[in-house]
Amino acid sequence: MTRPLQGNAGPEGRPLCFNREPRREYVANDGFDEQGRLRTKTIPWAFSQECKSWTSDPSTDPVPLLEGWKCDGCRHFPHEAVQTAVFRSLTRD
């Protein structure tokens, strides 16, 4: 197993994503201008905003469970996904 990178990186053992603001937009490359300089533009964030860290294949435990992330109290805490993950880990052979 690899060393935990998220669960022990923040204060009090919280993951780096703990209570972060959701992303609204980001800067993307948009080709080159006449002088050969890279152009960029800001576009809306097109990906999911909810926490997916606790979602995994049913045959494996999610990273936060394996690494002991302290996610309780986070405003993005996915209660149903956590319950499912803990139940699967307790009932797996």
Any chance you could write out the topology, listing elements then pairs?
Blueprint lengths: L24 E8 L5 E7 L18 H5 L11 H13 L2
Antiparallel strand pairs: 1-2
**Taking strands numbered 1, 2, ... along the chain, how are they ordered across the largest sheet?**
1-2
Largest beta-sheet characterization: 2 strands, antiparallel
How many β-strand stretches? Answer: 2
Shape: elongated
Descriptive notes:
9% of the residues are buried. It is built from 2 helices and 2 strands, in the order ββαα. Helix content is 19%, strand content 16%. It has one domain. A hairpin with a 5-residue loop joins strand 1 and strand 2. A two-stranded antiparallel sheet has the order 1-2. The chain is elongated. The chain has helices at 63-67, 79-91; strands at residues 25-32, 38-44.
How would you concisely characterize the structure shown here?
The chain is α+β, with helices and mostly antiparallel strands and 93 residues long. It has one domain (19-91).
Key attributes of the depicted protein:
93 residues, 16% strand, two-stranded antiparallel sheet, 19% helix, alpha+beta, 2 strands
